[in-house]
Backbone:
């Protein structure tokens, strides 16, 4: 969203439940339509087909990987377009993203996918991407990008700066404090409490609050540290100090990559840098959709029920999926299709509405807890350049909740869309993307366009000296923009694990499980595909 989505830190700790899977070539027979060939597969093994529910980026990444491994796929998508929370639109010379605006390559699978799809030439890097602003005392203040800049910055006080620099010395090793055991309290600690212990309240209010609002629409108190920032949570357990731990683990990973050698996907590209694609984030979706094959992606087809024919004794079984789709005249048609396995990537709130049966008996999902989703509105506005009196170069500005309260600001922040990507607006205009809602302001996310237009214009007036009214306005309301990785997220992950364990051939992937960032969900879909390949292989072995 607004900040570079820190993929490594947003992935929850829980890896997919089943075995860890190597990417060996599958032994089952590839579907006839597949372009991929793999001579190691047994010609006599039956063709395998997999259903994927959801054509968001995780579902498409899973489908792409399965197709590469010679598996026939059918992707069911309830909406009439692929992409889920990734969607680009254009009109009157403007081009804007309505969901994810940028991504990073911090997950290896994201780099691999970009390389495999041949999308390197389409990657579009924002101008002055390291110039990001935080509102302090009512005005945008440049976020320091290195320790020296931090010393000079006015974003936090001298006392907080000292606390940051002294953290490695002051913070005793966690394992010493607790004789190596992680306490219950620590397990369920919020992001706010964790960061306050290490760096103080001002860092929570002015750096962490806007960061988490910018990446997940959440707030530091509602988010669980262990689920929202597992990498930092683990650093404390291992090293005590988060800063010392980050430096030491970076040094040791440098050593590892020297030892490993070889060309890794995305080699030479900076894994932390945010980017989009020429034509917006939709270019990634279009490339995936194209590779998976239009005929394999069933748009406007909502999965209603899933039946596993497994008997509860053997560890395998087939699946029958019933879905609703519209015919050319808009009439609803119900269809049943059979598959060997299922990858579910629909949000859990949608899964809760689906009917599951196992061996003919209902498989009731009453153990699946309610997931809290955060609502968000995106306002895309454009202004004549001459009407923007204090334009800022860079990525965008984030507004800490404290500053929103003190200065009557209503937006979470704004991306300087055409400063980042000048080809996205006519030459005489600036394009902005502002965010409203999230966990601090749930009700405001659902406000009508006229109200939101006023609020955004008022905030931009205060921050950038904008005069007059926008020349262009688009409003996109996401009722369930992000799942909140809150304090109950263990029970959510346990419920997913229970489904995967009790329903043979059922795998779950996507942003309700493995992190919110685009790179994380690509990794999630790709890993689920590998697990399916292993599962199908084990079934082939059982059958032969
Ligand atoms: C406003 C916004 C801004 C964001 N900004 C960024 C950013 O800048 N950087 C970043 O890294 N991440 C960002 N994200 C997060 C990221 O975009 C998402 O986490 C990611 O795209 C989710 O992908 P997914 O495949 O897991 O789920 P989704 O995209 O939600 O896909 C799930 C799909 O399942 C379909 N579905 C649901 N029920 C059924 C059913 N019964 N039958 C068939 N299909 C069904 C849905 O229609 C949907 O298409 C942003 C998200 C939002 C909302």
Residues:
């Amino acid at each position: 969203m607004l900040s570079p989505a820190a993929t490594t830190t947003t992935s929850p700790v829980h890896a997919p439940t089943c075995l860890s899977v190597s990417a060996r070539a599958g032994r089952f027979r590839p579907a006839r339509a597949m372009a991929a060939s793999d001579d190691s597969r047994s010609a006599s093994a039956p063709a395998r087909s997999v259903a994927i529910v959801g054509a968001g980026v995780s579902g498409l990444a899973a489908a792409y990987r399965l197709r590469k491994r010679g598996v026939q796929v059918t992707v069911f998508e309830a909406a009439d377009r692929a992409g889920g929370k990734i969607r680009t639109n254009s009109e009157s010379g403007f081009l804007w993203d309505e969901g994810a605006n940028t991504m990073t390559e911090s997950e290896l699978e994201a780099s691999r996918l970009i390389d495999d799809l041949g999308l390197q030439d389409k990657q579009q890097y924002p101008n002055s991407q390291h110039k990001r602003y935080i509102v302090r005392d009512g005005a945008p203040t440049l976020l320091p990008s290195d320790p020296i800049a931090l010393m000079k910055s006015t974003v936090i006080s001298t006392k907080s700066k000292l606390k940051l620099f002294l953290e490695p010395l002051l913070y005793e090793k966690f394992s010493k404090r607790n004789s190596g055991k992680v306490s219950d309290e620590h397990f369920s600690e919020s992001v706010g409490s964790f960061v306050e212990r290490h760096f103080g309240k001002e860092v929570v209010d002015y750096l962490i609050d806007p960061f988490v609002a910018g990446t997940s629409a959440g707030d530091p108190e509602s988010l669980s540290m262990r689920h929202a920032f597992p990498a930092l949570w683990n650093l404390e357990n291992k090293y005590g100090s988060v800063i010392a731990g980050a430096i030491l683990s970076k040094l040791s990973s440098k050593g590892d990559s020297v030892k490993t050698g070889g060309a890794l996907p995305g080699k030479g590209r900076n894994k932390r840098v945010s980017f989009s694609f020429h034509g917006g984030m939709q270019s990634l979706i279009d490339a995936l959709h194209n590779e998976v094959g239009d005929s394999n992606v069933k748009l406007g087809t909502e999965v209603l029920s899933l039946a596993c024919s497994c008997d509860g004794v053997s560890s395998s079984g087939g699946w029958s999926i019933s879905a609703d789709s519209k015919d050319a005249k808009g009439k609803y048609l119900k269809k049943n299709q059979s598959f060997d396995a299922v990858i579910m990537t629909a949000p859990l709130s949608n899964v809760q509405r689906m009917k599951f049966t196992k061996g003919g008996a209902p498989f009731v999902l009453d153990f699946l807890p309610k997931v809290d989703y955060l609502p968000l509105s995106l306002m895309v506005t454009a202004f004549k350049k001459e009407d923007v009196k204090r334009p800022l170069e860079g990525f965008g500005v984030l507004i800490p909740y404290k500053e929103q309260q003190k200065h009557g600001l209503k937006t979470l922040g704004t991306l300087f869309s055409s400063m980042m990507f000048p080809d996205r607006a006519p030459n005489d205009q600036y394009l902005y993307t502002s965010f409203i809602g999230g966990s601090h302001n749930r009700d405001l996310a659902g406000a009508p366009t006229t109200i939101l237009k006023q609020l955004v214009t008022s905030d931009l007036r205060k921050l950038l000296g904008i005069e007059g009214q926008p020349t262009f306005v688009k409003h996109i309301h996401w009722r369930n923009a992000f799942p909140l990785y809150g304090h109950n997220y263990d029970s959510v992950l346990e419920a997913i694990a229970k489904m995967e364990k009790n329903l043979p051939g059922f795998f779950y992937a996507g942003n309700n499980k493995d992190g919110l960032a685009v790179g994380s969900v690509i990794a999630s879909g790709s890993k689920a595909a590998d697990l399916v390949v292993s599962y199908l292989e084990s079934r082939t072995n059982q059958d032969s």
About this structure: Confidence is low (pLDDT under 50) at residues 4-44, 174-179. The first strand starts at residue 49 and ends at 53.
